[in-house]
Structure formats: structure tokens, C-alpha cells
Amino acid sequence: MKFFNKHKPNVSAQIGAMKSKYPQFKARHLSNDTVTFIGDLMIKPELPIYSVSVEYRGTLSPRVRVIEPKLVENPPHFYKNTKCLCLYHSDDFKWNCRKLVAKEIMSWTIAWLYFYEAWLQTGKWFGPESHHTPNIIKEDKDD
Q1: Is the pLDDT confidence value at 143 over 70?
Q2: For the chain, which has fewer Cβ within 10 Å, the N-terminal or C-terminal residue?
């Protein structure tokens, strides 16, 4: 019987899930427990196509960055120091390396981009929010 180990990264599973659900994303294997996926997302036909980088880092929270088009300066729910999207608050969601980027992170990335576009038009963030120190990401800890 094989025991589930939430602390043992499975890069192959991440790559397989992304190929299946988001075939337009290409994987760049960085190490035994790190892989970066880069690809385009079309949120709605009338919105820009976004080129996005998603870094799976094993037990550390994934990092999502928008490559193109460039985001405006100081968008909401964005960490300035790492240039990463803030997709969730650690009080609301606990990442572990067995969760799939394709299932968890990609849907939140698409939602973030949709809410970002709405914010550009209205000045109001319509997405879910958690109140925390803005624009600073703390160093990740192992779960």
C-alpha cells in the first residue's frame, strides 16, 4: 500500500495535468521539485490575451506572473516585490505540493485576470478579497 505524502513534490503529475487541461502551456523543468509553465490565456474574446508564467515550487506556494500585456502600476492583489499575483490568502487556503496547479491555481489566475480587467474599467475590484498587508509577500514556509 502506497501512502500519500503531501510533502513529496510530483513534477510529473503537474506536467501531465497541465498538458491535459492547458495544452497551450509549455513546461520548463527547473529542478526535481520545480517547473515553470508558460502560456497564453484568453479570458474573453473582447479582452487581451494574457501570457502567463506559473512556477510550481513543490511545498512552496506557486508563483504566478503576467508576462504580457504589462500590468498597470500598483494593481490590486499583487505583490510588488515578487511581481506575482495574489490569488489567495494563506488563512483561506493551504497549499501543498500534491495539489495540482492545473486544478487550483489556473482557475484562480483566470478569475484574477477577469477581475483585473473589470477593475481597469470601473476602479472597483469585484473579486473575493481578504484583508492583509498589501503588496508584500512573506517568505514561504514549508507546510
Answers
A1: no
A2: N
